[in-house]
Amino acid sequence: MGLEEALPSGVLLTTVEKVAGYARKGSLWPATFGLACCAIEMMAVGGARYDLARFGMEVFRASPRQADLMIVAGRVSQKMAPVLRQVYDQMPGPKWVLAMGVCASSGGMFNNYAIVQGVDHVVPVDIYLPGCPPRPEMLIDAILKLHDQIQDTKMGANRKAEIMALESAALAAPSTLEMKGLLR
Ligand code: SF4
Questions:
Q1: Which residues contact 122 (CB under 8 A, 6 or more apart)?
Q2: Tens of pLDDT along 122-152?
Q3: Which of 74, 77, 120, 170 is the most buried (most CB within 10 A)?
Q4: Using CA atoms, how far apart are residues 107 and 42, in angstroms rounded to an integer?
């Protein structure tokens, strides 16, 4: 079935935001950046079995200037944190960050002075992926969820209003110190 059958009248209406989101999610290029064991699973995603090429993302860029997705695959040491931030700063906007695995998301089992307790202390994170290590299928699932986020990203005045709403919600949220979880 061609586009003509889906659109009998031959007219398609959409918004600039939706076209931009569609183009952005279909042209993500990850930065070549692996920090620990999670990176092995990330590399598997680029291979033939999991085939990240289905989404046009198989080329991990050697230069951050050609990348718009940072997959933080592994624990972030204090020594690595400024390097990670520099790589992030060198990426052109709009750009996105995926924290892969518990170590990147929260420090994981490395609750010590040498490891940053969550990469969101260093760069803004768009999506967190749990697991130790997450399977390649889980990484693909996180990437598809990030695609949905990118597709729905607002622009211009709508984006400013969205950011203000998100900041208000973050300020109103209880601090993690007050949260009671299984470990407290
Ligand atoms: S989450 Fe597990 S697999 Fe990933 S970097 Fe940490 S220890 Fe390694």
A1: 76, 81, 84, 85, 88, 116
A2: 999 999 999 999 999 999 999 999 999 999 9
A3: 74
A4: 18
In this structure, the residue with its CA closest to atom 3 of ligand 1 is 133
- Rounded to the nearest 5 percent, the helix, strand and coil shares of the chain are 45, 10, 45
CB 88 within 8 A of CB 116: no
Tell which residue, 44, 171, 37, has the closest CA to residue 108.
37
- In the chain the domains, ranked by start, together with CATH numbers, are 26-170 (3.40.50.12280)
At residue 14, the 3 state secondary structure works out as coil
Q: What pTM was computed for the model? A: 0.86
Q: What angle do CA 57, 126, 143 make, to 5 degrees?
A: 30
What percent of the chain shows pLDDT beyond 70?
A: 96
Write the CA distances from 68 to 9, 28, 164, integer angstroms. 37, 6, 23
Helix, strand or coil, per DSSP, at residue 30: strand
Candidate of 43, 100, 102, 115 to mutate for ligand 1, largest count of ligand atoms within 8 Å of Cβ: 102
Which ligand 1 atom is nearest residue 133's CA?
Answer: 3
